[in-house]
Design goal:
Radius of gyration of chain A: 23 Å
Number of domains of chain A: 3
Oligomer: homodimer
Shape of chain A: globular
Largest sheet of chain A: 7 strands, mixed
CATH topology of the largest domain in chain A: FAD/NAD(P)-binding domain
Number of strands of chain A: 28
Structural class of chain A: alpha/beta
Largest interface: A-B, 88 and 88 residues
CATH architecture of the largest domain in chain A: 3-Layer(bba) Sandwich
CATH class of the largest domain in chain A: Alpha Beta
Distance between the termini of chain A: 76 Å
Strand content of chain A: 25-35%
Number of helices of chain A: 11
């Protein structure tokens, strides 16, 4: 029987990061990573295999870091556990001191009549499946996308680049409904319509039609939309089969229960990434956010705390920070939206700013930047930001994420020293973070006697 | 005699920001802004009038914010003061309760034989002068640039876009010698050489030659370089004439002496921006850094503290954060470089990372990103960052600036939650801030017993 000090189950970003971090921290421990897949895909790159990347292979997560870090790679399936021994599908048994579950997530399958027809696809993290989907997309003219979240819109953007006739159908009243406020959803609708997509929001698919193979969808209002294929992207659910088999506590909707050091209900067994239940850093409530970046932060924490807790590292709950690009416009979010703050019954103040991302604005290639900040009314702390603009949004939103994680207030943001450059950022006079904070401060100020 | 509660002298970004901030904070006060220039230029945009912008007029700082904020604009020259009355060149006198000097800076003129010849230009913040320079550049084939700092290289980049034969001459041993470490200076040299420039470092100009009008330069090694015009960009010095006339304390090399609230040696008189002496946020020593972004932070602080100190706002010294673009490569700096840390006798640890700014790296348009972080050895606090990469560097360096201003440690950076997107940022697994911090942590870790 093989034996390792540390066994990581799952080869996605969470598992890989855990392995690298464990190796750095514990140079003398033996480490193995067990995964089902021969090759692993970069999860956030998956939509881009459809058009931007030539082949699905271009989106492979390289195994170099596994080998370079002296981690033994085992391609197999864990089917159970007996005390501190893992049972593999191949019949092999592996002894461990510590186990980290990084089992990931799988597409949520909405209960729609006809969802199992041939020609209905999900955004799965599976190489063969995606190769086939890429092929089918190529052959199709009309495609229906069910879902209006980030991934659905990234898929839509890719399909539009391929000049497909795309129809997006979202159940909730706007695009990006769970992650951005209405004005941003409206912008996304307008961009996608300009690119030629048909967009239906507040619209439910009653059934997916077709004899044998899909030929379209019927909406609850009776309207029929033709489709050569249907792509469903309505969220993900944690992979919990292994937790069940291993006898770990979990919550069906949220994932494997972990403490602040990501340890499960059993000593020495940890869970990270999409399969682990997460709590919001604002409210402590369960959070459905599944992000590679959160998984990374967890992986680094677990990897370095496997055998001894290092007190300086505590995972204080999930802060959702993400960005996307639709057409030539990028969107970014960190923390709470206004509608989330309202729903939570929080008292808040909104600060906004609109400017351009170069200065002077007459420089070629300048894009409009719109910024919305949500501050806690009494603590003055920044709770959330939403931004729309050019490609710089990707790193800009990380600046906001750092601001939120440091619990900075409007006054502190107002006197931040930031750098600007004509070709790379908005003007210092119009710098969005500062001006939107000043806008919020002005609102407080005017309220006061 | 006209009378105002607040008079701001100087119409650049520092003066303008002070005016806007004063208006927001004190809606009932009368505010005037006195400036010499009929129209003001965006200072950081000035290099870009040479090629990227069609006309110098495209780089005008608009007066809209002055008028929209009910600030009276007076175009005149302040020539002296009698108690709380300003004396203007036109003969007019203006009574004030508070004055803010935002007098800016002017090009440093190096003591080179022939520097006053016709055909020698400086990067002045003067519309007419720049119009003439733009014209002369157009007519020239061979141009010598004296200086190798950010502005000199931005000018060089613009001249290369116009297909001029450009020679850059820097006295110190590398390009960007005062602001970035050697490896970055080497990259700048290599980029500019690839674009066709001749670069001389560690090289002193002995004299500028030509009968009547410039025809070249002679180096101390005897070499002669032909030039139709010479552009000198070797730094700026604070405008101190007005401080002298107003009887304020100043330091000839550093600027007008101000306290932490930017008040000068006289009650009720403040100074902001390039004309004010600044101290480093790391050492408390005088700092020569002149940045619009620092001026902004000061202007906002003074504008809101003119009549009553609001304790929550304190300017804790200058943190230099800036970015630039040379060819298609962007550079960014925040805080201390390694060579500065070494010179200060600090104990430090360096963490580095190299990756690409999209993921997978096979996505079109991906640029290499190189990151260098400098941590204090004992406090583990981030002291400085230098980065090289694509256009996202502009906002990326602002994220680092926020990290430094929050005095975050390597461990805190290691578990930051950041957002990533295939088209907009590096991969979460390779995210530079985190991986460079982890690289530094590993170095500590290995040193320990």
């Amino acid at each position: 029987m093989k034996s390792f000090n540390v066994v990581i189950i799952g080869g996605g970003p969470a598992g890989l990061t855990t392995a690298i971090s464990a190796r750095s921290t514990y140079p003398d421990k033996s480490i193995a990573l067990i995964r089902r897949e021969k090759t692993v895909l970069i999860p956030c790159g998956i939509p881009y295999v459809l058009a931007s990347l030539n082949t699905v292979e271009d989106n492979i997560l390289p195994d170099g870091p596994i080998h370079n870090n002296n981690v033994e790679l085992i391609v197999d399936n864990v089917v159970g556990r007996r005390d501190n021994v893992l049972l593999l599908e191949s019949g092999e048994e592996i002894k461990f001191d510590r186990v980290v579950l990084a089992a990931g997530s799988k597409p949520f399958i909405p209960p729609i009549d006809g969802i199992d027809k041939e020609g209905v696809y999900f955004i799965k993290k599976d190489m063969e499946y995606l190769r086939n989907l890429k092929e089918k997309v190529k052959e199709s003219k009309k495609i229906v996308v069910i879902g209006g979240g980030f991934i659905a819109l990234e898929v839509t953007d890719e399909l539009l680049k391929l000049k497909k006739k795309v129809t997006v159908i979202e159940k909730l009243p706007n695009l990006l409904p769970l992650v951005m406020d209405n004005e941003f959803g409206d912008m996304a609708i307008s961009i996608l319509k300009d690119m030629g997509a048909d967009i239906y929001v507040d619209t439910v698919v009653e059934k997916i039609t077709g004899e044998g193979r899909v030929d379209g969808v019927v909406l609850t209002n009776g309207k029929k939309i033709d489709a050569d294929i249907v792509i469903v992207s309505t969220g993900y659910t944690p992979n919990l089969e292994l937790a069940e088999k291993m006898g770990l506590a979990y919550n069906e909707n949220q994932g494997i229960i972990v403490d602040e050091y990501l340890m499960t209900s059993e000593d020495g067994i940890f869970a990270v990434g999409d399969c682990a239940a997460k709590r919001s850093c604002f409210t402590g409530d369960y959070s459905k956010i599944m992000l590679a970046s959160t998984a990374m932060a967890q992986g680094r924490l677990v990897g370095s705390n496997l055998f001894k807790i290092k007190v300086m590292k505590v995972f204080n709950g999930t802060l959702g920070t993400f960005s996307t690009k639709i057409g030539n416009v990028s969107f970014g979010v960190s923390g709470l939206t206004e509608s989330q703050a309202k729903k939570l019954g929080m008292d808040y103040v909104v600060g906004t700013n609109e400017t351009v991302d170069k200065h002077p604005g007459k420089l070629p290639g300048a894009s409009k930047v719109y910024t919305k900040l949500i501050f806690s009314r009494y603590s003055h702390i920044l709770l959330g930001v939403q931004v729309k603009g050019g490609d710089s949004i990707g790193e800009l939103v990380n600046m906001y994420s750092v601001i939120i994680q440091n619990r900075m207030t409007d006054m502190e943001i107002d006197t931040l020293q930031i750098g600007t450059h004509p070709l790379l950022t908005p003007s210092p006079i119009a710098y969005p973070a500062i001006n939107a904070a000043a806008n919020a401060i002005l609102k407080w100020y005017k309220e006061k006697p």
